[in-house]
Description:
This protein has about 450 residues and is α+β, with helices and mostly antiparallel strands.
Amino acid sequence: xxxxxxxxxxxxxxxxxxxxxxxxxxxxxxxxxxxxxxxxxxxxxxxxxxxxxxxxxxxxxxxxxxxxxxxxxxxxxxxxxxxxxxxxxxxxxxxxxxxxxxxxxxxxxxxxxxxxxxxxxxxxxxxxxxxxxxxxxxxxxxxxxxxxxxxxxxxxxxxxxxxxxxxxxxxxxxxxxxxxxxxxxxxxxxxxxxxxxxxxxxxxxxxxxxxxxxxxxxxxxxxxxxxxxxxxxxxxxxxxxxxxxxxxxxxxxxxxxxxxxxxxxxxxxxxxxxxxxxxxxxxxxxxxxxxxxxxxxxxxxxxxxxxxxxxxxxxxxxxxxxxxxxxxxxxxxxxxxxxxxxxxxxxxxxxxxxxxxxxxxxxxxxxxxxxxxxxxxxxxxxxxxxxxxxxxxxxxxxxxxxxxxxxxxxxxxxxxxxxxxxxxxxxxxxxxxxxxxxx
Length: 439
C-alpha cells in the first residue's frame, strides 16, 4: 500500500500521550484558482455576445448560464476537495505501515483502503471519520480518526491504531473493490440482446453526431469553418505555450482547450461503426430494390413493356422484399461491395462479419415486417380517420399487395422446412416399397 507523498509532507504531525499520531487539519483557502472562473465567465459572455451580434438571437443564454453555474459549483468545491485529498494522503502516510503489520499477523492481504467520513443532516456535518481497510477475505476493519479541537493545537485528527471489524453496511459497501457489473456483463441478457444493445447505441451516437454536423453545415455554413479554424489555431497556440512555459496553469489551460477536440474525436469515432451499419442496409436496399426499379423503368421508357407506376412499385417492393430476405443474395452483395474484406486493414474483416450478421434472414425479416407494421398503422389510421392515403390510393394498394406477397413467401419458407423434414421420413418409407417378402 505504498502511496506517493504530496502535500501531506507539509502537514504538522505529533504523537499524543496515547502514542497515537496526530496531524493538524489544513485550513481551507477560499478563491483558489480564481482565474478559472474568470476565464469561464469570459467564454460564456463571448458565446452569448457572438450569438446576439451575428444572429440577433439569445437562445443560448439559458443553457450557457446553466453550464456556467455547474462549473461555478465545481470551482467552489476545489478547496474542499484539495483539503480532503491532503487528509487522505496524510492518514495513509501515518497508518499504512501499521495496517500492513496488523493484516500480516492474521495472514491476510489488503485489497483496498480509504478514508471515509460519516455525515449527518443535509448540511454535510461530519459525524465521524474512519480509515476503512478491506482484506482479501472480504472482512473490513475500521480504524477511528478522532477529531479534536483545542486552543493550543487548533483542529486536528488523532489516528487511533486499534481497529474493529466493521458491521456497518455502508462502510463495507464503500471500501469493497468495485466489481465490473455492467449491463453487458450481466448473465441475464443473452449475447444477441447485448449485441443489439450495442448496435442501437452505435446508431444513436452516430446518428446524433451526423445530425449535429449536418445542422452546423446547413445553418452556420462558413461560420463553421471559421470556428473550426479558430479553434485549431487556439489549440496550436496552447501547444506552443506548453512547450515554452511548462507551468501548471498553462497545462490546465491546454487541458481545457483540448475538451472540444476530445468531443470531436468521440463523434468521429462513433461515426465509423454507424457508417458501416447504415452502409450495410444501404448497399442491400440499393441492389435488391434499386436494380429491379431501374430495369423496369428502362423497359417502360423504351416501350418494350408498358407498366403503370403503381405496378412498378408493386413489383419492386415485392421482389425487393423477397430478395433482401434471401441470404445467398445478400451474402453475395456484401462480399462484392465496398464492405468486403480486402485484406488491407484488420477492421475490414470485422466490418464484413458484422455486415453479414446484419443481413441474416432473421434480422432482415424482422426489419421488413417492422416497416410494413408502421406502414399499415399509418395508412390504416389515415384511411379510417380522414378517408385519405399516405401516398395515393394506387401506391398504397400496391405496397399492401406487395406485403401479402411477402407474407406468402415467408410462410412458404416455413412450410418448406417442415416439408423437408417430412420428406426424409417419406423417402425411408418409399425405399421400403422395393423390399418384397420372400416366397
